[in-house]
Amino acid sequence: MAEKPQPLHVVYCGVCGLPPEYCEFGPDFEKCKPWLIQNAPDLYPDLLKEAEAKAKEADKISGQLQSTSISDGSSASKPEEVKRLPGGKVKKKEKQEIIIEKVTRNKRKCITTVKGLELFGVKLSDASKKLGKKFATGASVVKGPTEKEQIDVQGDIAYDIVDFITETWPDVPEAAIYFIEDGKKVPAV
Ligand SMILES: [Zn+2]
């Protein structure tokens, strides 16, 4: 036995008052859309897809906002940037000190090497000239064993040089000056 046809349940759009299938021709289809999705999704299957797409888009945006705010928050705790030399070695911060070493070459020839003046903002070429003039000897900027520039002064001037350095370059504290004696680093003061 066939079922009795159900009386057609007529619904009108809760927004514009038209039968839902006419909403798209109504005064404000955009405003009808949420109601249609809720009450007549079969009539407008595209609306559901559209709504889902919008929801996804909104999720994406809020996700982006969230990740942005997370990275903002963590920037304060970012690890301190470390200077890296080519090859990935971490460059140590150089200790500000001046190393004076008396070197005897060829048994008789004595040279006093001065390392580290550049760490106090002293121009080595300028310092070399001043040292040569002061001690009336030859002085030159040379590359040391580690390719770092140093000043070689002819002769043994080690014990006069400390006063000269601190007088000529007041930025250099006496406590930052060391001698190398018998392979040991000893403070000049
Ligand atoms: Zn409507």
TrEMBL record:
Pfam families: DENR_N, SUI1. It is found in: Cytoplasm. Residues 58-89 are annotated as: Disordered. Keywords: Cytoplasm, Ribonucleoprotein, Ribosomal protein. Residues 98-169 form the SUI1 domain. Residues 63-77 have a biased composition (Polar residues). Belongs to the DENR family. Interacts with the 40S ribosomal subunit. The SUI1 domain may be involved in RNA binding. This is Translation machinery-associated protein 22. It comes from Coffea arabica. The lineage of its organism: Eukaryota, Viridiplantae, Streptophyta, Embryophyta, Tracheophyta.
